Amino acid sequence: MGTTLCVTHSHRVHINAKVNRQLAPTDAVLFKELEGKLEHSNANKPQDMLLWPGIVLMAIVSSSDKQLKNGIRYKVLEIEEQEVSVTRLDKDDEPEGEAFRMTYAEVAQKLRLTHAITYHNSQARTIRGPLRLSQTSRKSFNRRLLITGLGRAPEGKDVQVE
Predict the structure, then answer these.
(1) Where are any strands of DSSP class E within 14-158?
(2) What is each CA distance from 68 to 30, 75, 114, 131, in whole angstroms?
(3) Number of folded domains in the chain?
């Protein structure tokens, strides 16, 4: 399916939810957002997500977090009754370092789906595989966002412009 770049966070949430439902196996575990318990801006708002071993998520945390690093991708290894085992991925999506455990609440608060991200959050990233540049007809879409989006894919053949 690849990654979709979005202008707005509401579109990012919509795409993530849609793709997450499509890809989820029947035994996926639903993680509910902890609305009212977390203080996030709309940009970092958590969302309900179906998780299973093998899904890749991205950390959205402050610099003071001791376990996770903001913007880094983590792979779910195992989902147990109270905890989730994850491992950090390097730039080539290979496991890096030791696996560690997180509570369900920590996962819901600190990790996000990666099927869609905003153009602004994609800066300084290389996105391998299919990449869709969405919302290109919006008034707020400009040349800078186009250049940002096109610059994420190492191979032009992987890019689709909506």
Answers:
(1) 29-31, 49-51, 56-59, 73-79, 83-89, 95-103, 111-113, 116-118, 131-133
(2) 22, 12, 16, 25
(3) 1
Give Cα separations from 105 to 55, 115, 136 (angstroms). 17, 21, 35
Is residue 145 included in any domain, yes or no? Answer: no
Q: Is residue 129 part of a domain?
A: no
Q: What is the pLDDT of residues 46-55, one digit of tens each?
A: 889 999 999 9
Q: 35 lies in a domain?
A: yes
Give the N- to C-terminal CA distance of the chain in Å, as an integer.
15
For 78-125, the pLDDT digits (tens) are 999 899 999 999 988 899 999 999 999 999 999 999 999 999 988 888
The stretch 46-68 carries a mean pLDDT of 91
Q: CATH number of the domain that 32 lies in?
A: 2.30.30
CA distances from 38 to 34, 60, 65, 81, 107 (A): 6, 13, 15, 22, 12
> What is the model's pTM?
0.87
Q: Is residue 95 part of a domain?
A: yes
Q: Which domain holds residue 62?
A: 26-114
